[in-house]
Every structure is written in structure tokens, then in C-alpha cells.
Design a protein that fits this description.
277 residues, alpha+beta, 3 domains, three-stranded antiparallel β-sheet, 10 helices, 8 strands, Stomatin_HflK_fam, transmembrane helix, Band-7_stomatin-like
């Protein structure tokens, strides 16, 4: 959290505390409660001392109003038994799954998308004073934000730009929950489920693309092989010795195989006469 956000949160806490004056009658009740605690000491000490854990904060209400100074804790703090009450707030990171949402994309394709959200309470005072149930409100807002963000994307963008979509969702949720004292730390898109017919169509399209690519590669290979054979034939035609050597190598290769074929070597000079004709 940067300095600007910190100053804004402190300003909101100050506004809440400035509106929480208990008045003259309230101070009379507070003094009476304090006097009663002193008269019943040390029995009253068990009702006055409260403990919150390291990951918790306590919001103290005195006659229904939040005490100035913000949240208390961790450790020990004191309350007055008759006039004070408190609420514990968990400050740890909370994780929840976004239920699968059926979304109509920009190119009119229905997909089912789910995700996961990580958030924590950044300001316990605002989380108690400004919202009834911060967890439930954040869950509902995450579902709505997921549908709104994906509705502006087409199918190809949803499948390829998950990181960008998650970042947009995080920014939107973080700004919306700022007044609740909640910090959205991370949003992830878990799964994108496509209709079965669309899956088959995409698989057929990918297979056709691969076959076309394979045919192009095979044609290029044949063309390169033809060029190599043409160059080899030109080299051999320039040298009669090279042609005779190639002829003898071919005879040697055929004779090395185990077969019943009988080869009668033909003089290369006889072939040259046929080639000239």
C-alpha cells in the first residue's frame, strides 16, 4: 500500500471517529461502568481483559460507537463490561472459488468460466463499519465482474489472454472494494469450458490445418529433392567416369543384398551408344 492509499484510509477512519461522540449521558454511563469495575475488582478484571491473536484485530464499540484509534491488537486490550463490546476481524488472506459462470462472448459464443480470488482485510474499521458482510459482498462482486469482463472479449482473447483478463478483474475488484477496507491481491482464471460441438469444430479445424501444413512441407521436400537430382545428373553427365562409378556402386549395392536375383554387368560403353541415339 502506497502513501496515498494510507492517507485515504486514515482520513476515512478519522471521519468515522469524529462522528462517534457519545455525549454527556454517555460519559456518565462510562464513568458508572468504570466505577463498578473498580468496586468489583479483582473479579471484574476477567471481564475487562480481552486477547486477540496475531492475525486478528478488535473493533471496540462503546455505547454503539467505534472508539477512536482504530482497531486494537494483537495482544491484550481492556474494555468496560457494561458499555463496551467488540468484534474480531481476521486479517489473513482469504481464498474463494468463483462458481462456473456461463458467459456470452463478444463473438456470440457461450462459454463456462470459473476462477479463484485471493483477498484480505486491509482496514478492519472500514470492513466492520461500511459493509454488513464483506466476504459475501466480495464473492458476489467477483461473479459479476467476471461476467462483465469476459462479455467484452471474443473467444480467441479469452483462450489466449487469461493473464490480462485476470489483471483487469483484479483492478476492478480492488477499486470497488476499497471503501470496504478490502485488498484484492490476486485473481486467476481456472478453466474455460467450451460447448461440445464447438470443441469438435475446433479440433477438425486444427486437424485440417495440420494436414495442409504437412502437404506443403512434403511438396517443398519433393521440390528440393528434384532440384538436387537435377544438379547431380548435370554433374554426372559432365564426366563419363562419374557415370561409370555410379553404375558400379549400384551393382555393388544390389549384389550385397541376400536375394536370388542374378545380375549380368553390362558394359557402360554399350549404354553410351544408346544414350547418343
Amino acid at each position: 500500500m502506497d502513501g496515498r492509499e494510507s492517507r485515504q484510509l486514515q482520513k476515512r477512519e478519522h471521519q468515522i471517529a469524529s462522528n462517534n461522540s457519545i455525549g454527556f449521558c454517555g460519559w456518565i454511563l462510562v464513568l458508572f461502568s468504570l466505577l463498578l469495575s473498580l468496586l468489583t475488582f479483582p473479579l471484574s478484571i476477567w471481564m475487562c481483559i480481552k486477547i486477540v491473536k496475531e492475525y486478528e484485530r478488535a473493533i471496540i464499540f462503546r455505547l454503539g460507537r467505534i472508539l477512536p484509534g482504530g482497531a486494537k491488537g494483537p495482544g491484550l486490550f481492556l474494555i468496560l463490561p457494561c458499555t463496551d463490546s467488540f468484534i474480531k476481524v481476521d486479517m489473513r488472506t482469504i481464498t474463494f472459488d468463483i462458481p462456473p459462470q456461463e458467459v456470452l462472448t463478444k463473438d456470440s459464443v457461450t462459454v463456462c468460466v470459473d476462477g479463484v480470488v485471493y483477498y484480505r482485510v486491509q482496514n478492519a474499521t472500514l470492513a466492520v463499519a461500511n459493509i454488513t458482510n464483506a466476504d459475501a459482498a466480495t464473492r458476489l462482486l467477483a461473479q459479476t465482474t467476471l461476467r462483465n469482463v469476459l462479455g467484452t472479449k471474443n473467444l480467441a482473447e479469452i483462450l489466449s489472454d487469461r493473464e490480462e483478463i485476470a489483471h483487469n478483474m483484479q483492478s476492478t475488484l480492488d477499486s470497488a472494494t476499497d471503501d470496504w477496507g478490502i485488498k484484492v491481491e490476486r485473481v486467476e482464471i481456472k478453466d474455460v469450458k467450451l460447448p461440445l460441438q464447438l470443441q469438435r469444430a475446433m479440433a477438425a479445424e486444427a486437424e485440417a490445418s495440420r494436414e495442409a501444413r504437412a502437404k506443403v512441407i512434403a511438396a517443398e521436400g519433393e521440390m528440393n529433392a528434384s532440384r538436387a537430382l537435377k544438379e547431380a545428373s548435370m554433374v554426372i553427365s559432365e564426366s563419363p567416369c562419374a557415370l561409370q562409378l555410379r553404375y558400379l556402386q549400384t551393382l555393388n549395392t544390389i549384389a550385397a543384398e541376400k536375394n536370388s536375383t542374378i545380375i549380368f554387368p553390362l558394359p557402360i560403353d554399350m549404354l553410351q551408344s544408346f544414350m547418343r541415339q
